[in-house]
Design a protein that fits this description.
This is ATP synthase subunit d, mitochondrial. The protein is mostly helical and 174 residues long. The protein contains seven helices and no strands. It has helices spanning 11-17, 23-41, 52-58, 64-74, 85-121, 131-137, 168-173. It starts with 10 loop residues before the first helix and ends with a helix. The relative contact order is 0.04.
């Protein structure tokens, strides 16, 4: 991990994807991020090199320069470990898989709807259609006296079930 990772932010791509109501917050965040980046870039990436031989010659106290040299070389400034990139990458892959499955599902729905649309386009226009044509196209919900005779008002509740024996008690009540 180095400073190069911080230079990879594509602010224009982010700006295109957020709603206009959030652009002021993004601008404030970008400004703050740029200030932090500018402060960080003011410092060198590596510790400055010290001419230890010069100091050994000029400082009289024995062992002082060697002590500072050992302590200086032992300095290790830890860079924060990256705990989030792997999680973000796995989440991105998971979301990409969900998007692909959604696209496939929608494409299958589009194909099904396109078939229905083609069927409707190839149908006889309603202005030229007869009741028999409509009955052939839409068998459910149409009156088909040749197959299932019904009586007025032609609703399911009003129809007598053929083949069922009449209850003699009902005849007495009528």
């Amino acid at each position: 991990m180095s400073r190069k990772a911080l230079k990879a932010i594509n602010w224009s791509a982010i700006t295109e994807r957020i709603p206009s109501s959030e652009k002021a917050a993004l601008t404030a965040f970008k400004s703050k991020s740029d200030r932090y980046l500018q402060r960080m870039m003011a410092y060198p990436e590596d510790l400055p090199k010290i001419d230890w031989t010069y100091y050994k010659k000029t400082i009289i106290t024995p062992g002082l320069v060697d002590k500072f040299y050992k302590e200086y070389e032992a300095i290790s400034i830890p860079y924060p470990t990256d705990k989030y990139t792997q999680a973000i990458d796995s989440e991105q892959k998971e979301i990409a898989d969900k998007i692909q499955s959604f696209i496939q599902e929608v494409n299958s729905q589009i194909a099904e709807l396109q078939q229905n649309l083609d069927r409707i386009k190839n149908m006889i226009p309603f202005s030229e259609m007869t009741m028999e044509d409509f009955s052939d196209i839409q068998p459910k919900g149409t009156l088909r006296p040749d197959e299932e005779p019904t009586t007025w008002p032609h609703t399911e509740d009003s129809q007598e079930k053929f083949g069922e024996k009449d209850d003699p008690k009902d005849k007495d009540n009528h």
